[in-house]
Amino acid sequence: MELNPRLNSELNITAKPARKKKLPLAHAFKLDSRPIAEKFGCLHDLFEAQVRLRPDAAALIFGDETLSYRELDRRANQVARYLQLQGAGPGKFIGLYFERSLQPIVAILACLKTGAAYVPIDPTYPGDRIRHIMEESEAILMLTEAALASRAAEYFDGPLVALDTEADVIGRQSPQRLTRDESGVKPSDLAYVIYTSGTTGRPKGVMAEHGHVYKFVLAFNEVCATTPQDRVYQGFSLSFDGSVEEIWMAFSNGSALVVGDKQTPRFGNELGQYLVQQGITYFSTVPTLLSTITDGISTLKWLVVSGEICPMEIVNRWARPGLCMLNVYGPTEATVNTTAFECVAGKPITIGRPLKGYGIHIVDGELRPVPHGEKGELFVSGETLARGYLKQPELTAEKFMTIPGSGANESLRLYRTGDLVRWNEAGELEFFGRIDSQVKIRG
């Protein structure tokens, strides 16, 4: 299975060699890819469109419980209306502190519908990290479950809402969808804040707007579109942006999202057997975990690997006819996935070409474009770049740069990845790791 041919032709422009002549800084960067779409929607619009198209199709599966798109929408609407009564709305932050189940997925949809940004917190986080995240985000409340409520209270002094405890009160709310007039949510409002580890030890809260994620979903659907017949496994922690890919590859296409529980195997052939039993056709994971599964997963149609360098032996073992295996690359700051490469057994592995709407720029230490084929630092531009880091303006200014335009050229905003890459002769990006790691190796 090949990547969308139309997308390939549109992206070839980014593989053109940079001019060898040194250009003024304002002209050193160009946005190589055209806008994704004229329509600029909110993230939950994608889910609600599927509710209208296939209301009775399975949307969310957890153990023996299945919610249709209609049922999931109604439940999320009730939670959203309840959250509005607690002050939720655009510009507000809500912490999510759950074990794996249906509840956090419902909570995410409810937050999006109100316009509040969700802040996912993994229950395995150290207490100090949880406290820091909740304090820095100034979350108006923390959504959780009864089994975790007492522990949550140790880390958060504000209001706690256990969805299962409040089920009766929530169930009395209207299941009707909030209108835009009721919520006030816009594509420019924040959808989530995902915290990544900081190089100084301080976590960084990456702020992604509805429009950023909406356009990522449209772009990734061009290379990895699931169908209503697919079943997507939700295996990543919600505090990792890989979960955004999983959730929205399902909900933007009418697929079923299958969520494991605490007893679900986390790796090895036991996980592979579980995925087969669940009929999983879409599996997104990291190469290290994939290497622990030796028996294969016969039901798969889509296999996406990210987060680490993918070894050739993994590709040789997994790539096969009827299975599209993608190696993807993307910093959280550019919204989930930036590039994609279709893996073929025996073919050298790269990180591929940019998704539509993502601009790729390779520069030297003076921020000048490098000649085609030479290594340089990767900068990313486009409509999916995060707003920045929550309450860290200095770090935001350091990592997110704006190059002023001149004449008819508009200014260009870029994210500095710190990664070393180059274009190869096939017009694909080769990845060589972190710039700082290269410096250490050399000296």
What is the makeup of the main sheet? Answer: 5 strands, mixed
> What is the tally of beta strands?
21
Q: Strand order within the widest sheet?
A: 11-12-13-14-15
Helix percent reads 25-40%
**Structure classification:** alpha/beta
Strand % is 15-25%
Distance linking N and C termini? 43 Å
Using the CA coordinates, give the radius of gyration: 22 Å
Low-confidence stretches: 1-38, 439-443
Summed up, the helix count is 15
> Looking at the structure, what is the overall shape?
globular
Mean pLDDT comes to 89
Structure commentary:
By secondary structure, this protein is α/β, with parallel strands linked by helices. 31% of the residues lie in helices and 23% in strands. The protein has helices at residues 5-11, 43-53, 69-85, 102-114, 127-137, 146-155, 167-171, 180-183, 210-224, 242-251, 268-277, 287-290, 312-318, 393-399, 435-442, and strands spanning 58-62, 65-68, 93-96, 117-120, 141-144, 160-162, 190-196, 204-209, 231-234, 256-259, 282-285, 302-305, 324-329, 339-342, 353-354, 358-363, 376-382, 388-389, 400-403, 412-423, 429-434. The strands form 5 sheets. Strands 11-12-13-14-15 form a 5-stranded mixed sheet. A hairpin with a 5-residue loop joins strand 20 and strand 21. Helix 3 (69-85) crosses helix 4 (102-114) and helix 9 packs across helix 10 (242-251).
